[in-house]
From TrEMBL:
The chain crosses the membrane at residues 7-26, 32-53, 65-82, 147-168, 189-207, 213-231, 238-263, 269-286, 329-349, 361-388. Pfam families: MptA_B_family. The keyword Transmembrane helix applies. It comes from the Bacteria. GO terms for cellular component: plasma membrane. The keyword Disulfide bond does not apply. It comes from Fibrisoma limi BUZ 3. One of its GO terms (molecular function) is hexosyltransferase activity. Keywords: Membrane, Transmembrane, Transmembrane helix. This is DUF2029 domain-containing protein.
């Protein structure tokens, strides 16, 4: 029986490798039919491979070396692919070339630089400009992100592929580090280390992070490192690791109130101060009044202009059209951010009977549930958090969120709101079932002897 399953694992691994290569090297996002069929096939394979490890039981098992090796190899297969499903990489290259040539990327609009002496010096040509998805917006990527952009551009100043490989390497290394940290943390918590495969083999995680070059991978690594150092009693090192996560993407700032709740007010505030000061220090090389103004203007535009694959916001937008006859994003976006902030504080300080891991999952779920823009790679952070809890609705969402790529079938882009409704409707249903009927998703604690409420700090 074991030999048969191992043989089938090899067949699934080979078929999955072929599907990953097709997605990464040949399928544009406009070809939604083929894209979704390949993703669906990958998730069927993923389900088969991780089925024995989907719950927290069998906690004393050794890591499955074959499957962890597969998780790394699948990522390495994508090393030389130019991202087909996202055009964000071109802004990374644009910012990186500016920084590599000594210019502050926070100070310049791409359109203002086109055909300028700075553009000529930095290799910012018209071909690259035409690939940008936000040429009229200042960059919003934090300083550690910019440093990685700049290093990749410095190492490969004229080669598109070379720069993409340079951008991808920190992501793949972070993913390997995250898998090690996940298994280490799971063992520390007396849980099955193979639960890390729920993240390591997840097709959305592999395609969106290693494939499409999104730096949530680096954020997840530094957040896990912060947790590991906190459990090891190294509070200052943990705060520095969290600051590095914030300096890659700003989202981890949401976890600082949780640190205060877990550590207590005195130690928690000290933790937040250290993380905040380190984050500010990372911004200092770029510091200027223009930096602050440009970042806030871009973030404001993000919440008041951009909308994609939203859930609660789309419902409110429909009500706004019906009541007022026009899009209410500026009004609704502001109040959604207020509700999000209050909800996160409520989860942080009122959910005292659940683990911090579940609180992190709740914070991220609220944040993305109320957001006006939710790209597929955003869901990868929830997948990482789910590893340490009994909840599996983020895995369901990771399988359904590629439906949002249906938007790119037409020019101009047009979202299919029926698919959006299916995506969020199924995820909400699964989440409700997991909350109300936990035995449907995992044996209870009495039967297994394993805590089912996730990470205990």
């Amino acid at each position: 029986m074991i030999q048969t399953r191992f043989s089938v694992n090899w067949l699934v691994a080979i078929a999955s490798a072929a599907a990953y290569c097709m997605l990464a090297y040949t399928v544009p996002r406009q070809n939604f039919g083929l894209l979704f069929m390949l993703m669906l096939a990958l998730f069927f394979g993923y389900g088969f491979l991780v089925m024995p490890y989907r719950f927290t039981g069998a906690r004393r098992q050794k890591p499955d070396e074959f499957l962890f090796t597969l998780a790394v190899l699948f990522r390495l297969l994508l090393l030389f692919a130019i991202p087909c499903l996202s055009d964000d990489v071109y802004r990374f290259i644009w910012d990186g070339r500016l920084l590599a040539n000594g210019y502050n990327p926070y100070l310049y609009l791409p359109r203002q630089l086109l055909n300028s002496p700075i553009a000529l010096e930095a290799g910012l040509n018209k071909s690259l400009f035409q690939q940008l998805n936000s040429p009229d917006y200042f960059t919003i990527y934090p300083p550690l992100n910019q440093a990685m952009f700049g290093l990749a551009a410095y190492l490969a100043p004229t080669s598109l592929l070379g720069t993409v490989v340079g951008l991808r390497m920190p992501i793949i290394l972070s993913e390997i580090g995250s898998l090690w940290l996940m298994t280490t943390l799971l063992r520390r918590l007396d849980l099955n280390p193979n639960l890390a495969l729920l993240y390591g083999l997840n097709p959305l995680v592999i395609i969106e992070l290693s494939g499409n070059v999104h730096y949530e991978a680096v954020v997840i690594f530094f957040c896990l490192l912060a947790v590991w150092w906190l459990l090891s009693g190294r509070m200052v090192a943990s705060a520095i690791a969290l600051s590095l996560a914030i300096a890659t993407k700003l989202v981890p700032m949401l976890f600082i109130p949780l640190a205060i709740r877990v550590l207590g007010w005195r130690r928690g505030i000290l933790y937040g101060v250290v993380a905040g000061l380190c984050t500010i220090a990372l911004f200092l090389p770029f510091a200027s009044i223009e930096l602050v103004r440009h970042i806030f203007s871009s973030i404001n535009l993000y919440f008041q202009k951009f909308e994609f694959n939203a859930s609660v916001y789309y419902v409110l937008r429909a009500i706004g059209y019906w009541v007022r006859g026009y899009n209410t994003i500026e009004f609704v976006g502001f109040w959604l951010s207020v509700v999000t902030t209050l909800s996160i504080l409520w989860i942080t300080f009122r959910w005292r009977n659940v683990s911090p891991a579940i609180q992190i999952l709740g914070i991220l779920s609220i944040y993305f549930g109320f957001a006006t823009t939710v790209h597929p790679w955003y869901a990868t952070t929830l997948v990482a958090a789910a590893v340490f809890t009994r909840f599996r609705y983020p895995l369901v969402w990771s399988a359904l969120i590629p439906l949002s790529y249906a938007t790119y079938q037409t020019t101009p882009y047009q979202e299919n709101l029926w698919l959006t409704a299916v995506e969020y409707g199924v995820v909400l249903l699964v989440a409700i079932l997991e909350i109300r009927v936990p035995r449907l998703v995992e044996p209870n604690e009495k039967a297994t002897g394993v805590p089912t409420d996730g990470l205990h700090l």
